[in-house]
Specification:
The protein is α+β, with helices and mostly antiparallel strands and about 160 residues long. It has 3 helices and 3 strands. A 3-stranded mixed β-sheet has the order 1-2-3, sandwiched between helices. Helix 1 packs across helix 2.
């Protein structure tokens, strides 16, 4: 099966399951911000692994039980929405990448980087590498630039 078709089916499953999960009234599934991060479908379209990320998950065990309970309904509705020969068996996996990323971001925001104060000039360039407004390096005569304004050096273009 061409890869593009499989990617398109994965995206369709992702959109449809996301919409279906929003409409399910099971309190076990309404534990936080639920998002479907990815869908991997086998080449024969018999199984689809759906990666779900929940930010603010209170009980992973309850959430998995709610997904298992709703899997039949979601698969049935998915079969109605998509026009596939076989509706894939749905396998739900929790993806903790968003929560992990938020945790890393919180840790990084608490760190203090030395030399990051506003009065510190540690990152500025020294005068021997600085150029003037015409693009010439310090100590180089005006008009003796080693390349044109686009940064091309003479002899770089094989068409000349």
């Amino acid at each position: 099966m061409p890869v593009n078709k499989l990617q398109r089916i994965n995206e369709d499953i992702q959109r449809a399951v996301a919409a279906l999960l929003r409409n399910i009234k099971d309190p076990r599934l309404n534990q936080g911000m639920v998002s479907i991060t990815a869908v991997d479908t086998t080449g024969d379209l018999r199984q689809a692994t759906i990666y779900i990320s929940v930010f603010g998950l209170t009980s992973e065990k309850d959430f998995k039980a709610g997904l298992k309970s709703a899997a039949g309904y979601i698969r049935h509705e998915l079969g109605q929405i998509l026009s596939l020969r076989y509706t894939p068996e749905l396998i739900f996996e929790l993806d903790k990448s968003i929560e992990h990323g938020a945790k890393i971001n919180a840790i990084l925001s608490t760190l203090e980087v030395p030399g990051d104060s506003p009065g510190d000039n540690a990152g500025s360039s020294s005068s021997d590498n600085a150029g003037d407004a015409s693009g010439n390096k310090a100590g180089e005569a005006p008009g003796n630039s080693s390349g044109d304004s686009l940064g091309n050096n003479p002899g770089d273009n094989p068409d000349e």
